[in-house]
Design brief:
single chain; alpha/beta; Rossmann fold; four-stranded parallel sheet; 5 helices; 17% strand
């Protein structure tokens, strides 16, 4: 991941909302030039995927629910900015891994975060995530 870039963290990234809505929308924004090319998207969820496996699952979702067929030639560049960490929302040590994924890149001011989960989990994310920044 490039230093000085924008980062988006999607919690619950292997869920239906990410495949149907978030990734197709982010891909569409990139294709229209409304999402900077130096934007990294990091998926965080319990499913044990590698970066490449996550990219393949997101490609399938974007193909089914988005405009991938129209912008097939742009997918490979977009997919290189997709990353994935397997972790549990309830474990503080997994949040620490988010901040050290690429030294100097991740931090409370460097990432926009989306929760692709049940809203009740948001308090858990905020509580655990905030512990490291008190």
């Amino acid at each position: 991941m490039a230093k000085g870039s924008t980062s988006i963290v999607i919690f619950g990234a292997t869920g239906d909302l990410t495949q149907r809505k978030l990734l197709p929308a982010l891909f569409n924004l990139r294709c229209k030039g409304r999402l900077p090319t130096n934007t990294n998207i990091l998926g965080f969820s319990r499913t044990p995927y590698s970066d490449e496996e996550f990219r393949q699952v997101m490609r399938k979702g974007t193909q089914e629910f988005g405009d991938l067929a129209v912008h097939e030639d742009e997918w490979d560049a977009f997919a290189q900015d997709l990353y994935y960490i397997s972790g549990d929302l309830g474990k503080p040590e997994d949040f620490i891994r988010l901040h050290i994924y690429e030294p100097g890149t991740w931090g409370p001011k460097a990432a926009d975060e989306f929760l692709s989960q049940d809203g009740r989990r948001w308090l858990q994310v905020c509580g655990v995530h905030g512990e490291g920044h008190a």
